[in-house]
Amino acid sequence: MSKKRKKRKVNKLHQASFLSSKFYQSFLSGEVNLLDEISIKKFKNITNEVEKPNFVSSFSGWVLNADKGNGNINQLKRGNKLEKSLSKKLKYDSISSEEDYRRIKYEFLDNDWVLEYEDISLKNRRAFKISSLEFNGKPFYGRPDVVYRNIKTNDRIIVEIKNTGTYNNSIPDGGWFNLQCQLWSYSWIDNFIDSPNIFLYGDIRKMYTLPNWNGTQIKISEPSGQNPGWRIRKNGVLNIDNDNINNLHNQCLELFEYYGGDFISR
After folding, report:
1. pLDDT tens-digit map of 48-88
2. How far apart are CA 24 and CA 107, in angstroms?
3. SS3 state of residue 146
4. Opening angle at CA 42, ends 37 and 43, nearest 5
5. Which of 13, 16, 126, 214 has its CA 20 to 30 A from that of 84?
């Protein structure tokens, strides 16, 4: 008599089994840069009299200002300008575009991940509504740098790109507080609520200025080797069973409340 084959159980929810080891290393073991008592005092004491728009970039800029001081706002603007210019004229290892760069340097990307949104090389991209984050009774809006969607699972990877001239040992584990707050804020975008799993990735790059053959200077950007990643949503819910995600959520929420915002759980 032939033995009947047992049917293998298939979980209808997205399973972690599809994740490669490289994917796991990039997203499931990310540390979080935690506030200390001195940093908390900075955020508590900063004035709230200045106008603060309902935008993620305004929130993250406020976090950077409170943490590092006013001088870093200009540095943030220069970094944003550099990101735009690099995306238009990227020459690194004969890579001709930002998307090519990411496809080569992001080891976790395969053909199932398609580029859904990019706010780096394109102007006047629409801003996404974030109903879970409110300020003065109005919802937040935000433009992530890059979003990838998985065509098989409908999962998403949200990417925030930062360029820095600092040495690696100056980049804290988990990235800077403003980077964490940006990615956390984008994870609540209304249009992404249909994703069972959402992954966050901080693409921190080192920036160099080198002399060109014609006497001018060129700016080179390359991976820093310190790129925090988290699986913030797991099977449709906030992944607070993970200690790092619990820390990330509670800390970003605390800073958002210092900003004057209200979190609306949905």
Report:
1. 555 678 999 999 999 998 888 765 545 545 445 445 545 44
2. 11
3. strand
4. 100
5. 214
